[in-house]
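Quarterly update from the structural biology core.
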Amino acid sequence: MAAILQVGQNLAIVALHPRVDDVVRTYLDEIDAHAPGLLEGLYLTGSVAMGDFQPGRALSRRGPSGASASDIDFVAVTSRPLTKLDVTAANRAHAQLARNRWRASFDGLYLTWSDLPRDPADVACSAHTHGDQVRTGGQFQANPVVWHELAQHGLAMRGPRPETLRIWTDRDTLTAWSRTNLSTYWRRWQQRSSAPMSRAGLACLTSWGPTWGVLGVSRLHYTVSTGLIWSKTDGGRYAREAFDPHWHRLIDECLRIRRSLPGRSAYRTPLTRRRDALNFIDMVISDVGSP
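Predicted structure, tokenized:
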């Protein structure tokens, strides 16, 4: 499959990675079979839409994303708010995807067309997925980043191109959300990972921990600075330009891991890499300041 992307005044055809193509085709076939006429729009967001999809090396679909393996994020637009029968049908479609445990996770939101022009804070998300299951209620993932990603980068697998739709965006709200995410989720993550023998601290000795943290806070710093959404890889490249050259070794290490590039680690020990990563994350959070 391929998507049509607006590039300036021109349209470009974007070919999907084979693993993404497999997931999207299977999902569309399954959801149409179990709930004909329900799905009117399907948009890929996240790393796929931003040209940063990393297939990883034989990682389970249940494994974490963020290092050398990416999830496939989506926004599904349905003809109606989901009923219980619709949720059951969607669960069957996602269960079919889960039968192949090496597929990337297919995670996202189920919305209606009328939800797209609305502030996500006012949207009672009808359903969301994480892992293998469709869940209803709450506002899980219904945040400004999803709407801005859809507006700025969304790839249409079904339905009108995003640039032809009315999609809510607001830079001030996006900036405030990003600052809060840095000062809450990421600050807690950094503090937990600073306990050397904790689960989080041990995870930060793997290649996943530093890469997830360093590139994650870098892309949020970029969003606060510009009002735009960028991929993890682009966030790392931005950090290389935005921060002191002292951090180049760490950033280059995380980009190498993210892109599964050959070569040895720039660090002699994972302990030193963890120390630098946690200090970098602390610096970025402090640089942005409180919301």
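The CA atoms of residues 63 and 108 lie 17 Å apart.
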